[in-house]
Amino acid sequence: RNMSSAGPEGRKKMRECEGLIDSLVYYIQGAIADHEPNDKATENCVCILHNLSYQLEIELPESYAQSIYMQRRNISNNDKTPGCFGTRSRKVKEKQQDTPLPEEKSNPKGVESLWHSTLIRIYLSLIAKSTRNYTQEASLGALQNLTAGTGPMPFAVARTVVQKASGLPSIRAMLHVSHPAVKKTAVSLLRNLSRNTSLQNDIAREVLPDLVSILPECVPGCEVACETTASICYTLFNLTQSSSHNARLLLSAHGLPKVIAISMNDSNMFSKASRAASVLLYSLWSHTDLHSAYKK
Predict the structure, then answer these.
(1) 8 Å CB contact between 17 and 11
(2) Of 31, 35, 187, 277, which one has the fewest beta carbons inside 10 Å?
(3) What is the pTM of this model?
(4) CA quadruple 279, 282, 286, 288: dihedral positive or negative?
(5) What mean pLDDT comes out for the span 180-186?
(6) What string of DSSP letters covers 154-205?
(7) pLDDT tens digits for 2-40?
C-alpha cells in the first residue's frame, strides 16, 4: 500500500508485476463473497488499486494507448475554446460521445482489470456494504481516477457506473456520511460523471436534490468543506448548463438562495467555493425561460 503511492515509476512497475493486480482483485472478491467487506486486508487491497488507477489514462503502456486512444489524438486543438473549466468545448464533448468505446475482455488480466466492469462493480459493492471510511473513500477514489480523463476508457467507466451497474444510489448515500473526506470524494466522482452529456439527465434525476441538500448556507470555514462546496457547484453547473429542466429541478429544491449566499463571500481564503457558485449563477441565468421564477 505504501509502495503504490510512491510515484509514477512505482505505479508502472506494480502494474507490470505479473499476477499482482489479479491477486488483489481475487482477494477482494473473496472478502465480499464471505460477507467481510470491513476486513483490514480488503481495505489495503482497495487502497493499492486506488493508487494504481491514478493517472491511468496518461500512464497506460504504449500498446494500450495506441489501440484505445489513437482516435482521441485526432481531435484538433482548434476544436477547443477557452472557458471556465479548461478547454472542453461543445465540439469536444460531442466528439467524446461519438468515439467508439474500448471492447471489454471477458477474462481480463493485469492492468486490463483496472478499468474492467467486474472491478467497477466490486468498488460499488464495497461502497454499499463496507462501513470502513478508508475502504469507502478508496473505492470512490478509484472510480474518480478512472473517470477523470476525456478518452473512451473514462467515458466507458462512467457509463458502466451510471447505467450498467446502477451505481448512483450507492454514491448518493455517501453524500450524507459524516466523514468529510468520503463526502468530498463522492462529490468529486459525481463531478467527473456529470461531464458526460449522455448521462446528465440520469444523474440529475437521481442525485441533484441530494447535492442541493448538502450545500451549506454559506461558504464553510474549513478547506475540505470549501473544496467539496466548489465541487458541488461545478457538478450542478454541468447538470444544468444545457438543461432548463435540470435548472428548474435546482430551483424547486431551494438551491438558489444557497448558491447566491455562497457566491457573495469575498474572503480570499475560501474564494474557490464563491467563484464556483458565481459561475453556476451565471450559467443558470442563461435559461431565459426561468428568469421570472428566479426573480421571485
Answers:
(1) no
(2) 35
(3) 0.87
(4) positive
(5) 97
(6) HHHHHHIIIIIS--HHHHHHHTT-S-HHHHHHHHHHHHHHTT-GGGHHHHHH
(7) 999 999 999 999 999 999 999 999 999 999 999 999 999
Angle, to 10 degrees, between the axis of helix 271-284 and the axis of helix 256-263? Answer: 130
Q: Which of 194, 271, 285, 167 is nearest to 229 (CA)?
A: 271
Contact 212, 243 (CB under 8 A): no
**Residue 274 phi, psi (nearest 5):** -70, -35
C-alpha cell at 64: 494500450
Q: Are 59 and 117 in contact (CB under 8 A)?
A: no
Rounded to whole angstroms, the Cα distance separating 233 from 10 reads 35
User: For residues 116, 169, 98 and 105, what is the CA-based torsion angle, rounded to 10 degrees?
Assistant: 20
Task: Name the 3-class secondary structure at 58.
Answer: helix
Distant-in-sequence, close-in-space partners of 251: CB < 8 Å, separation ≥ 6: 290, 293, 294
Residue tagged 464533448 (cell numbers)? 93
Residue with cell 424547486: 252
Cα 268-269-274 angle, rounded to 5 deg:
65
CA dihedral of residues 130, 134, 138, 141 (deg, nearest 10): 110
* 100 burial type by CB count under 10 A (0-12 exposed, 13-18 middle, 19+ buried): exposed
Torsion, CA 50, CA 56, CA 59, CA 61, rounded to 10: 110
The string of pLDDT tens digits covering residues 128-137 is: 999 999 999 9
List, in sequence order, the alpha helices (H) in the chain.
Answer: 8-16, 20-33, 40-52, 56-59, 62-73, 90-98, 117-129, 133-146, 152-159, 168-174, 180-193, 200-213, 223-240, 244-252, 256-263, 271-284, 291-295
Domain extent listing, the chain: 1-64+109-179, 196-295
